[in-house]
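Lab manual, section 2.4: Encoding a predicted structure.

Procedure: take the sequence of the chain (134 residues), apply the prediction step described in section 2.3, and record the output as structure tokens. A sample record is shown.
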Amino acid sequence: MPAASPISTLAEPRRQELVRLLWNAERTAGDLAAHMPVSFSAVSQHLAVLLDAGLVERRRDGRRQIYALNKPALGPLAVALEQMWFGALTTLKDMAEAEERRASASPHPDSNPNPHSARRSKPITPRPTKKGLK
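Recorded output:
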């Protein structure tokens, strides 16, 4: 039976997350499972599907199994995934840093440069009631 295409294999969101976790570093099955909202057994089953499709490679290190992403097997899909996962984050980071620079360069409109000039209001205290008066 031929291996499934990368697109059909990655149609499952949990497999997409496993590929994203493996994008920049090798990881053990236990580490991958710790980042997933499913059981270790479910993660192992998803890894087996990714292995069968050739998208993930596995090697032994003592008793541990180390998983690595086989990016060339993704073909042109690799560029789209990288842009989707990491390109948007880079853009968001750049926007947040620019906003932080703007905010630190000019004082906030609500800030008062002279805190002593601000009018302080007295706290409201309840008035005592007179019971029994008509």
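Check your result against the sample. The helical segments are 6-9, 13-22, 29-34, 40-52, 71-74, 77-105.
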